[in-house]
Specification:
Elements: E1 2-5, E2 8-13, E3 21-27, H1 33-42, E4 74-77, E5 88-96, E6 101-109, E7 114-122, E8 128-136, E9 142-152, E10 159-166, E11 169-177, E12 181-187, E13 200-203, E14 213-219, E15 225-231, E16 237-243, E17 250-252, E18 257-259, E19 263-269, H2 271-284, E20 296-298, H3 300-303, H4 309-322, E21 326-329, H5 351-354, H6 358-368, E22 372-377, E23 381-382, H7 387-391, E24 411-412, H8 418-435, E25 439-442, H9 461-478, E26 483-486, E27 504-506, H10 513-523, E28 532-537, H11 550-557, E29 561-565, H12 573-595, E30 597-603, E31 608-614, E32 621-627, E33 649-651, H13 657-661, E34 673-675
Parallel strand pairs: 20-21, 20-29, 21-22, 22-25, 25-26, 26-27, 27-28, 28-29
Antiparallel strand pairs: 1-2, 2-3, 4-9, 5-6, 6-7, 7-8, 8-18, 8-19, 9-16, 9-17, 10-11, 10-13, 12-15, 13-14, 14-19, 15-16, 23-24, 30-31, 31-32, 33-34
Helix pairs in contact: 4-6, 8-9, 10-11, 11-12
The structure holds (2R,3S,4R,5S)-2-(hydroxymethyl)piperidine-3,4,5-triol.
């Protein structure tokens, strides 16, 4: 059977005695009986010399009993038994729409005492997603080691690309040939990770933003996960993904089930079109942020831990003057948190710094200036030097007999303890409600190492991740209208499952605009710009020491969810006026940037970068052109503006605050007309 949407199609073989197999995932194809028969014939497995005596079919969940010697989809056992299941379908539900649809297959292996559910959905954006669920129907516990789902890609997908990175340098692309063996990207940080693959792409050699057939997968999970590209001796190529389970982490009691994360898969011609399917899907969600994304002022780099009412009121005044719409108080407002070694977990306004009504006064002041008030939390964490850790040392994730090594002087609070969960839930909700907090910057600043639960004695990353999701969901339910940002030492929690419950990500702690060009360009492989916080930092970037003009810093931030992270009391009056011009400019441009189609190009051997947003009806577009490196020739070659309607004629002019005000003769519109055919 075939599902099709937005130029993409998936064809499944649904055998009576085996699991579903993807015969085609890619461009649109017809679904006449002849088409499907031809496809089935063309994809029939051939006998591999010295292989098993029948053609091996590789299902959505590959099984070893078939003779498949690549990675199996399900791994686990029941005290050493039931380790090689053979599932047979018991029920198949197909729900086909004009745009996409879904297939749900139930299967079982009675001998192994396992039930399996496989769900595949082609979304209206043409994005495919799949997930699996395994249930223990045996009489004894079943230890699950892993559940991975696989999608085939054709032989022409001969090159792979995914992302790497580290703190303050997230989402760095890396390419490799698709050689025999497995290219495996494991995330073992207990969070999505600054080095997460994000989207693992296989494509035609030389594929780029504009062209080259590509297939990409993303594992939507904020805990340990794995994604891989596997090419086997018999010429098959698969993209696989799933959660990465720690030893003994998931043991299913009789009748207990495990559901794996959604694996999202996008096929398109070129990386821009591949990204567009993710963007379209996200933008179509009922709770995708629809209000104009407010200009943010976050005070982290302005004051760090030095909180002082007068100073922050002054910053709020300056913020309002330049047109800020949301003022965010970062780390340091609660408990004994005067530096990063103390107080995490004690989520009550600090008496020492913010007592005697000073906190309320700040919030009133901010709101009185017409801005929303945002506040930083790191709900899943605890400093050993905190009242919470002293009261409940058993709520810290740990292994028997020792505490994990500290990271940023902190440990992880085990949210699977009902008491710990309740403590965080009630404290966050109380602060949000009491002070009318509009926005929470939700941080998560360390990896989960030795993350065992004292409740079960087992590895606890899986439970912790699900508990964090529940916690955010419940906070949102209790605080309607609250917006939440996913921050994790900058951009270490960027995935589609955290985005089901948050409104934007903080892409990186690196606000250096030169670096940000790269970080934003590749974060866009998954997320549209309105979900990516992008701030104008100080002229000398705190993380790199690089000095950059305000115009470059601001023009970079305009292509995201714009904000400011700069001590404006240090900026000169002229700079503040210039910044105000950019804030105005962003307010005019945000609708286009936040609804437009993202286009990216790498020109002049990669020295010249172009990115832009083209309105859905292609009547207007905004482009940023960045000379990342000084080029060997000058001027560089002419730039073709991508994404436009070849039959239309466009007026092309420089854009920016000076142009908007029309008072800068150097950048005034030339008024020329340019054909962009
Ligand atoms: C890490 C975040 O990425 C920063 O923006 C800031 O909020 C600090 N944590 C505060 O501790």
């Amino acid at each position: 059977m075939r599902l099709a949407a937005a130029g993409a199609a998936v064809v499944l073989l649904l055998p009576e005695d085996g699991l579903p197999e993807v015969l085609h995932w890619g461009a649109h194809i017809g679904d006449s009986p002849e088409d499907l028969e031809d496809l089935e014939r063309a994809t029939r497995p051939v006998l591999a010399t010295n292989g098993v005596d029948h053609g091996v079919r590789v299902a959505l969940l590959p099984e070893s009993w078939t003779g498949w010697t690549g990675t199996p989809g399900l791994s686990g056992h029941r005290a050493g038994a039931s380790w090689s299941p053979r599932f047979r379908p018991t029920r198949i539900d197909v729900d086909e729409h004009e745009q996409g649809g879904s297939v749900v297959v139930q299967a079982h292996d009675t001998a192994a005492g396992l039930r399996l559910g496989l769900e595949l959905e082609l979304l209206p954006s043409g994005l495919l997603r799949l997930r699996g669920r395994v249930t223990n129907v045996g009489a004894r516990p079943y230890t699950l080691d892993g559940l991975r789902l696989a999608l085939p890609v054709p032989t022409k997908a001969d090159e792979i690309l995914d992302l790497a990175g580290r703190w303050a340098k997230e989402r760095v692309p890396q390419r490799a040939p698709f050689v025999v063996g497995s290219h495996v990207r494991e995330g073992r940080h207990g969070r999505t990770g600054a080095d997460a693959a994000t989207v693992l792409v296989a494509g035609e050699p030389g594929f780029g933003f504009e062209s080259g057939e590509t297939w990409g997968v993303h594992v939507a999970f904020s805990g340990n996960h794995v994604v891989s590209a596997e090419r086997t001796f018999d010429g098959r190529r698969l993209l696989l993904g799933g959660e990465l389970l720690l030893p003994g982490e998931v043991e299913l009691a009789p009748e207990e089930s495990y559901t794996g994360p959604w694996i999202y898969a996008s096929h398109a011609d070129g990386l821009d079109a591949l990204a567009a399917r993710f963007h379209d899907h996200l933008r179509a969600r009922p709770r995708h942020p629809r209000s104009p994304r407010p200009v943010v002022m976050n005070v982290w780099e302005a004051v760090y831990f030095h909180h002082d009412l007068d100073r922050l009121k002054e910053l709020a005044d300056l913020a309002a003057e330049v047109g800020v719409e949301r003022f965010v108080l970062d780390d340091g407002w609660f408990g004994g948190r005067r530096d990063d070694a103390t107080g995490l977990g004690d989520w009550a306004v600090s008496e020492e710094v913010w007592g005697d009504g000073r906190f309320t006064e700040l919030v009133r002041h901010v709101k009185g200036l017409g801005m929303e008030f945002g506040l930083w939390f790191e709900p899943e964490m605890v400093n050993p030097d905190s009242d919470l850790a002293r009261r409940h040392p058993e709520w810290i994730l740990q292994v028997e007999g020792r505490l994990p090594v500290e990271a940023r002087h902190q440990q992880v609070l085990d949210l699977s303890h009902p008491g710990a969960y309740e403590h965080v839930l009630s404290s966050v909700v109380a602060v949000v409600r009491e002070h009318g907090v509009d926005f929470v910057k939700w941080d998560h600043n360390r990896d989960l190492v030795d993350a065992g639960s004292t409740r079960t004695g087992r590895a606890g990353v899986h439970e912790q991740t699900l508990a964090a999701y529940r916690l955010i969901d419940e906070i949102r339910a209790r605080c309607p209208g609250l917006e939440i940002e996913s921050c994790s030492s900058g951009g270490a929690r960027v995935d589609l499952e955290i985005l089901e419950r948050t409104d934007r990500v903080w892409a990186s702690d690196c606000i250096d605009a030169h670096e940000r060009q790269q970080i934003q360009r590749w974060t866009a492989q998954l997320l549209p710009p309105e979900l990516v916080g992008s701030h104008v930092g100080a002229d000398r970037a705190h993380t790199t020491g690089r000095r950059l003009d305000l115009s470059f810093r601001a023009a970079t931030a305009v292509f995201g969810h714009f904000g400011i992270e700069w001590d404006l009391s240090e900026a000169g009056e002229g700079e503040r006026a210039e910044l105000a011009g950019w804030v105005d400019y962003y307010k005019q441009a945000r609708h286009l940037v936040h609804t437009g189609r993202v286009v990216r190009r790498s020109l002049e051997g990669g020295d010249l970068w172009l990115h832009g947003a083209v309105s859905p009806d292609r009547t207007e577009a905004l482009y940023g052109l960045t000379l990342r490196e000084r080029h060997v020739t000058w001027p560089a070659g002419r730039v073709r503006l991508p994404g436009l309607d070849p039959d239309a004629t466009y007026l092309v002019r420089p854009s920016g605050p000076a142009v908007v005000r029309g008072d800068d003769p150097r950048t005034a519109p030339p008024g020329g007309r340019t054909d962009c055919g």
